[in-house]
Amino acid sequence: MTTPNFGSRRVVVGAHYGLRDWLAQRVTAVLMALFTFILVVQVLLPGPMGYDKWAGIFNPQWMRVLTFVTIVALLYHVWVGIRDVLMDYVKPVAVKLALQVGTIVWLVGCAGWAIQVLWRM
Description:
By secondary structure, the chain is an all-alpha fold.
């Protein structure tokens, strides 16, 4: 006697399901924390705080690259978080897809704006 099959079976992918996203959240958070520490140290260096000092912090190419890498990490961190929230709480597929596409467009726009700001100084 065979048991009837009701609906499709869920495929479980193993013990590493979600590990990549969890690890990405932690790695990007550590990178953002390190960048924040470097930035705070530079801001606290002696001298009056003004536009010249602020622009001077981001003038070296290494700082611009580090800032952009941190912004990319922040955007990926945001994407993983928002995508997980949408997958967990938004049930209609069309609404979920529209919100995910909107989020991607917004994040790509933020990346473009960051490039423009960093390399225009």
